[in-house]
Amino acid sequence: MSTPDPSPHAAEGSLPGSGGDALAARLRAIVGSDGLLVRDDELFVYECDGLTLEACRPTAVVLPETTAQVAAVVRACRAAGVPFVPRGAGTGLSGGAHPVPGSVVIECSRMKKILAVDAENRTAVVQPGVVNADLSDAIQHLGLFYAPDPSSQLACTIGGNVAENSGGPHTLKYGATTDHVLAVEVVMPDGEILRLGSPTGAASGLDLVGAFVGSEGTLGIATEVTVRLTALPEAIETLLVIFPDVVTACRAVGEVIGTGLVPAAMEILDQRTIAAVEDSVYAAGLPRDAGAVLICELDGAAVSLDPQVERIREIARANQASDVRVAEDETQRAQFWKARKGAFGAMGRLAPDLYVHDAVVPRAKLPEVIAQVCEIADRHRLRLSNVFHAGDGNLHPNISFDRRDEDELGRVIQAGGEILAACVAAGGVITGEHGVGVEKRDYLPLVFSEADLDAMRRLRAAFDPDLVCNPGKAFPTTRFCAESNPKARGYDQVPFE
Amino acid sequence: MSEASGAVHSVQAVQQELGADVASMQAPGQELAGQRIELSLRPRDGAELASCLRALSEHEQPVVVTGGCTRMGLGNRLGDVAGVLSTERLSGIVEFDEQDGVLQAMAGTRVSEVAAAVVARGWELPVDPPGGTTTIGGAIATAATGPRRHHYGPLRRSILGLDVVLASGERTRCGGRVVKNVTGYDLAKLYAGSLGTLGVIESAWLRLRPAPEETRTLVAVFASDASGRAFALGLEAARRDSVRAAALVSGAPAAELGAPTGHAAGCVLVVECAGDPGSVARDADWLVAETGARAVPEEARLLGRLRELQGSGRLRARLAVLPSKLSRTLTPLADAGFGVIVYPGAGFVYAVAEDVENAEALATVDAVASDVCADLLIEAIPDEARGARDVFGDPGAAAPLLRSLKERFDPHRILNPGRGQGFR
Ligand SMILES: Cc1cc2nc3c(=O)[nH]c(=O)nc-3n(C[C@H](O)[C@H](O)[C@H](O)COP(=O)(O)OP(=O)(O)OC[C@H]3O[C@@H](n4cnc5c(N)ncnc54)[C@H](O)[C@@H]3O)c2cc1C
After folding, report:
1. Which residues 380-439 of chain A have a CB within 8 Å of chain B?
2. In this structure, are B183 and B53 located in the same domain?
3. Reduced to 3 states, what is the DSSP secondary structure of residue B217?
4. Domains in chain A, ordered, with CATH?
5. How many structural domains are present in chain B?
6. For ligand 1, atom 7: residue with the closest CA
7. Which residue positions in chain A have pLDDT lower than 70?
8. Given 3-state DSSP classes, what are the helix, strand and coil percentages for chain B, each rounded to the nearest 5?
């Protein structure tokens, strides 16, 4: 990425470059002065998302409130020959919402209406700026919830979730965002408005919704999303299982999967994560001397849960677990989850910077890969902590570091590449939920051949032949990996409670 | 297609390039899906499949792609083709990871073969296609679905990764073998249900489900004036934890399932409960108490027969309908002479007819679909009734996008020309 453009833009909102004034005027005519940001101090926050080491200031940010405004903004950008970058809450971790030089950011945060809830048919229609957790809160009284639950759900938006195909702890049983999106209204890169899919979830013909979800903002801007709602389970049991170390915890997870149980969630926190959590406001009484804990949640028909809890206990015991605690009430359950979902925030205390990896391996390979990951971090003298969606084989090795220490930063990047390579060698992939974005675009060749990527480019070109919608993401650049992948994040900026 | 003499020359060139092991000329007069077939291609592995497509592309010879040939009538009318490209020899389970519950199978492998292999090891293949010889590739290409859809979800949900050979002959991969993955675009979603119009599936990684500990099938019969209650119960059943399939059947298919015929003919509710014994017993007891349903022995193959009925009929339509509007579909469709199968949990209504006045019956289907805002898919239609109709429905504003996709994935239109939505 290029460095931020240091030249200050004129205070009263003209844009740099030829035709900049005309574009600013057009954008202002569409969204009003109130919906257009052009001053340097306003643009500053849009330089990056949760991937903070790289930054690039956009020329303008627009805050549309309606689909028609989004479409008009896109057409204005097209007419001016300016690329545009959709943005939700900016919690993305792979740089998906990073501006490119000269671009206009289209932030959907003001499009936050829940347009309709249809309890009988279990669907809701929302604008893209609706915050994930707000949707579940709004429908809880109907006995329903919106299943995808990223740990950032108090901040991230449905639009961002759709773009990243976000997951969460409960993806194990309920699936990721793609399994819950029925239809999307899209402002296409040429400014046309297109409706993909159907509220029935079974539109005839090609599955364009499936192709759109997870496309990282490169195929168009989602301006309305119809989602599937899920009935709250009749009963829930949440277990906290204490293990001597993270490898045995992983082994137990593999065994649970192999036995044919499908818990709603299986999350592992290693010792360093436990310590960080217990030292923070998310403290949940986790045993500090445990090598690792597994949060295992079971849900469904009440009659079916007791036997499952028993089987988990047996598997845990057979894998050296020292204790299995069953949450006694909703308060304790909430506490376990607070510890889990606050873990990233808690880690922010360990060092100035935190680098979160996101990779997936076959579940049966978890024990050996986690051991490799620890070895890689040790070898590079790095502080590693692990908190991850073990049930899905989705690792989040987190490295705490200080970006001002250049040598350490170099080792962080080196180790990161080795971790991804180890996951791929085990049959895995380089991202399970955070996306490729800017961060991992040059690691794609670890997983895909040029022909594979070319097939993806065909899809891209059918939607966006001129590559103006969120350019520079999700496909390799010709640049060398290390050069384009310095990374670090400020997790503590995201609220959890 | 070019002139007859030129075309023959090119077909032969394809055959010669590929050799007799893979390609053979057909005896004159061979037909498939209403098209004359001169050439038959039967690659044995991905490399041969790639060679086939490369040669076809070079010589601009279109083909119809086949798996188990159970659903050749799906989609729009096939355009002119020179030959058939069969995946039947791309067969076998490549890898089965029992610990992880995932499996890779070649496209030409029978679904039934895979299902049997995994069930023996405690897993279940979440694919329930209508045809007995359906292949994995065929099921994916048609996005096959059956009575268990509301439980399994659409087939695309179980696809982890695909190896696909593009029309150009390039061998590509999307997705992977892991159960959670956002690495690269989710092209598998695009290929699933694309009827082989964008590429030829070579193999697939699929996610399995744990095989249920117990399965029970129950049947309840309702009088014709009780169909409202039957709908309510069917929907309620579908929302219970252990209910894996729920179907409401009326008309000729109901009679085949053992419903009384004649004037009092009503409908039949078929429910399959599966899972842990506690939930199964609870849900089955509930159904018996509510409806007087009786258990049906496994040998009756009730679900299998349901799948066959769902795929029957010279005229067949599928309507995807929101649950709240489902009950408005049954009577008008039944009155127009259709056998009707409703899957309340999935929101699918199948209207099947063997012998009706096509134009009139189609008009009824269109009217019902528009009344309940259904997504209508005409799955089977006699050629004489087809007209200019796009069986997927008018793509409307999406037409340029669909054309552009076809153009980019299959510029020479060698793959199942004409079959896709808006591709004509
Ligand atoms: C502490 C923390 C925990 C996290 N935990 C998880 C987790 O458990 N699981 C998980 O999956 N992710 C997690 N994330 C990552 C992040 O929250 C998700 O990727 C989220 O979906 C991003 O949403 P957003 O609204 O912030 O989108 P942004 O970051 O603003 O944008 C993300 C991408 O979406 C695109 N985009 C945004 N809006 C639209 C739109 N309307 N139309 C088209 N494209 C659009 C952007 O261009 C960009 O490419 C976490 C992040 C943090 C900081």
Report:
1. 389, 392-394, 427-436
2. yes
3. strand
4. 20-107 (3.30.43.10), 114-231 (3.30.465.10), 235-347 (3.30.70.2190), 351-463+479-493 (3.30.70.2740)
5. 2
6. A150
7. 1-19, 478-497
8. 35, 25, 40
Q: How many CB atoms lie within 10 A of CB A60?
A: 31
- Torsion sign over Cα B117, B121, B125, B129: positive
Answer whether B50 touches A (CB < 8 Å): no
Q: What pLDDT, in 10s, does the model give residues B178-226?
A: 999 999 999 999 999 999 999 999 999 999 999 999 999 999 998 877 8
Closest-CA residue of B relative to A196 is B398
Nearest to A213 among B122, B186, B392 (CB): B186
Query: How close, in Å, is residue A484 to chain B by CA atoms?
Result: 18
Distance between CA atoms of residues A359 and B42, nearest Å:
38
CATH of the domain at B102: 3.30.465.10
Alpha-carbon gap, residue B281 to A82, rounded angstroms? 63
The backbone torsions φ and ψ at residue A288, rounded to the nearest 5 degrees and listed phi first, read: -65, -25
Centre of ligand 1 to C-alpha A155, Å, is: 9
Contact between residue A355 and residue A401 where contact means Cβ atoms under 8 Å apart:
yes
CA distance B156 to B206: 9
Domain range for residue B285?
A: 214-386
Point out the residues of chain B with pLDDT beneath 50: 1-6, 263
Subunit contact A436:B420, Cβ cutoff 8 A: no
Q: CA-CA distance, B322 to A238, in Å (whole number)?
A: 34
State which of A70, A166, A179, A394 you would mutate to test the pocket of ligand 1, scoring each by most atoms of that ligand within 8 A of its C-beta.
Answer: A166
pLDDT in tens, B223-279: 877 888 898 999 999 999 999 999 999 988 888 887 666 545 688 999 999 999 999
Instruction: Write a three-state SS string for B90-115.
Output: CCCEEEEECCCCEEEEECCCEHHHHH
How many A×B Cβ pairs under 8 Å? 244
Residues B198 and B221 grouped into a single domain: no
**What is the radius of gyration, based on Cα positions, of chain A?**
23
Of B177, B192, B320, the CB nearest to A207: B192
Nearest to B189 among A120, A198, A207 (CB): A207
Whether A49 lines ligand 1, by a CB cut-off of 6 Å, is yes
Q: Name every residue whose Cβ is closer than 8 Å to that of residue B58 and which is 6 or more positions away in sequence.
A: none
The first and second tokens of residue B233, run together, are 């119960």
ipTM given for this complex: 0.95
Write the residue with the smallest CA distance to atom 15 of ligand 1.
Answer: A92
Specify the CATH number for the domain of residue B300: 3.40.462.20
Q: Which residues of B touch A369 (CB under 8 A)?
A: none
Residues B57 and B202 in one domain: yes
Does residue B419 share a domain with residue B328? no
What is the CA(A400)–ligand 1 centre distance, in A?
Answer: 22
CB B241 within 8 A of CB A304: yes
pLDDT for the residue numbered B73: 79
A249-285 b/e (C-beta count within 10 Å ≥ 16 → b): bbbbbbbbbbebbbbbbbbbbbbbbbbbbbebebebe
The burial class, CB within 10 Å (0-12 / 13-18 / 19+), for A217 is buried
CB within 8 Å: B184 and A454 = no
Taking an 8 Å cut-off on Cβ atoms, the answer to whether A205 and B402 are in contact is yes
- Find residues 314-373 of chain A whose CB sits inside 8 Å of chain B: 360-364
Residues B424 and B277 in one domain: no
Nearest-angstrom CA–CA distance, B47 and A456 = 21
Nearby residues of B186 by Cβ (< 8 Å), 6 or more positions away: A165, A178, A210, A211, A213, A214, A215, B174, B175
- Comparing alpha-carbon positions, the chain A residue that sits nearest to B156 is A210
Question: Is residue A344 a contact partner of residue A386, using CB atoms and an 8 Å limit?
Answer: no
Tokens found for residue A57 = 């200031």
